[in-house]
Predict the structure.
Amino acid sequence: MDKVAEILAEASAEAVEPRFRALAAGEVMEKAPGEIVTVADREAEVIITRRLRELLPVPVVGEEAVAADPELALAIRDEPAVWLVDPVDGTSNFVAGRPDYAVMCSLVRTGRTVASWIWQPSTATAYRAELGAGAWRDGVRLTRPPAPADPAELSGILKSRFLDPDHRRRLEANRSAFGATSPGRSAAGVEYPDVAEGRCDFILYWRTLPWDHAPGSLLVTEAGGVSARFDGTPYRPEAPGCEDGLLVAADPHTWELTRGILLGA
């Protein structure tokens, strides 16, 4: 667990942090319509990939590698173990000079996330989680504090950009039942820790790219929360395009309450 945390922090120090608010012309590119990538993303992923393979020689499914060759993502389904890597989560924030970005990694065995790591460079904060063993921030065990019982006192993040029209309609009609909602911080590696530590009570996502959601989902569930598909099925990482829709919450009661209000379920 400690070695992977070191790999992320060292790759960040080498390839990511020196470019924060210092990206040169030509170091930001569009990899797909509306999706940007930087030299920091690509260089950090190369470093992390090489060092993870030295640690455990299984396939590495990195966000940027999959952008170049989508077939790589099928290893999540086909291989007994894979690493998932998001070299710069929150790239739009990174490019804009906002501090909400993270470097993330997960280990997946037989389709289930068994360990995860999140490094937040701007605050030098390290999160990690291990299946059945707990969640930590900088070596301190995390236990999610109780969420308010009254939905009018709950705070949450609602990601509506990729929602289908029916879910968007229901979400917009029912969001006023909560105390406060926001579009989030454009970085799963910041938003999931907010739930795990009690700064936010729930998040509704639609698009669930595995490198974005495997690390934080394990962190939240090991801290006592819930990360599940809209039908209640616990989250499992899937190749892009396989399954969407995810509700994350502080505890089982908050998850059921939030789903009932937002989705009418």
Remarks:
- DSSP finds nine helices and 14 strands in the chain.
- The first strand starts at residue 28 and ends at 32.
